[in-house]
Structures
1.
Amino acid sequence: MAQPSESSANSAACEGYDDIKWDQIEFGIVPTDFMYIMKCSEGEKFCDGSIIPYGKIELSPSAGILNYGQGLFEGLKAYRTEDGRIVLFRPEENAQRMKIGAERMCMPSPTINQFVNAVKQTVVSNKRWVPSVGQGSLYIRPLLMGTGSVLGLTPTTEYTFLIFTTPVVKSYHKGPLNLVVKDGLYRAVSGCGGTGGIKSITNYSPAYKAANEAKAEGFSDVLYLDSATGKFIEEVSTCNIFLVKGNAISTPKAEGTILPGITRKSIIDIAVDLGYQVEERAIPVEELLQADEVFCTGTAVVVNPVFSVTYNNTKAKYKTGSGTVSQKMYETLVGIQTGHIDDTKGWTVQI
Ligand code: COI
């Protein structure tokens, strides 16, 4: 298949676009046309990546990623704007977060420019998969992984940076969330052993068991408490959390155990601009139960209202729907991402 040229990236009417069955796309993996791959050896720098057809990759059974989970991932999206452009949202923030994570996981990382350029090339190659404006986005998944062989517990000798994409049309969650908080259930530990503040691959599958149990009990997901005291809220397995009380919007401070979400950071700035009093601080779970509104943020979930939080024998219910702060946050964020609202902060990067 011929690789589309960069100059035609902005055309909304892409060749092949009409062949895609957009209404059948759920939130999940839809294989797109191309992916990006770049390798480097231990002690060297990444250089010379390339776009290749999307497909399986070969891994040694002794690869560091398979045996000891030496890996990171990122998540960002490409959007079509109302005037037909394709834009990324703050990709250099993902690049920076991957760099910080790579340092923690003893891996080399692509430079910020390499990361952003690789993302652009991947999106250009897959531009027919970027949904039309207002219909969704192209989810971009950069991976950084130890692909060299290893037996002893030590960083491996070869690293691979790979980016694949998948279109997302439907929302991650089907509506407002009903979360559960359980004593003794933690996502991340504080101190030097913890990796809660980076997007380490190993942070995510350990949450499956708790989430599956919560779903079996009729909840959407688990909201985790801090492991040091068991008193303060941290995050949901897929997203950060905010509460609204009057004119104040609060979110747990992203310090070590909490992922510093890029949507989280953007919502904080938007809320300040809209005149809310914004606080990043420790939030006791009891305070959450007294909030007017609660919402979650993340690349995948965007801004998702929370309908209820259950903790011990209390089920707190919150405002959702029209006129809520979370709706205003959603509309402002998505408005900037799709060019409906002026991007005065320079958050969008045109491809
Ligand atoms: C994202 O929001 O992009 C994430 O990485 C969360 C993921 C678990 C779906």
2.
Amino acid sequence: GKPVVVIVGRPNVGKSTLFNRLVGQKLALVDDQPGVTRDRRAGDATLLGLDFTLIDTAGFETEDEQTLPGRMRAQTQAAVREADVALFLIDGRAGLTPLDREIANWLRGLDTPIVLAANKCEGKAGEAGRLEAYELGLGEPFAMSAEHGEGVVDLFEGLREHI
Ligand code: GDP
Ligand code: MG
């Protein structure tokens, strides 16, 4: 079948916005409030002629470790393990958060290849956050904007290496 790309990251970094842009159907809910994407959602995506199945996840939608919704986190973790490549989004404007670092630590222990991107980097925004993301030890972060459709070529090249 088609290669599988999974989008992973903490709440509000723009995972569902990117999913909707690439899949071209409003299959994933986007909202300012964390916790809106209830389950992983899959769709057929096309990027510069590259066809793949794209999965949107929401397994880190709580910052409260005590009340982790285990089923959602387990679904996200399974999706990442089963994917050909995981696109790990951070928010370039916000910079790294403890949850970004926690997710990165978990991703580093998996066999799934990781492509790291700093989202919300339209124009010249988010460059400090992008540079900070080198600290995650997951390779070179590239700048993109899911909302404005920027960074498409870098995204294509990052994914193309693995699918
Ligand atoms: P998710 O929780 O990771 O799925 O994030 P969403 O896709 O729901 O987006 C969270 C918020 O960030 C929404 O208000 C989006 O409009 C906004 N957002 C998403 N992508 C971008 C972007 O590239 N630039 C900016 N400035 N905002 C964005
Ligand atoms: Mg979402």
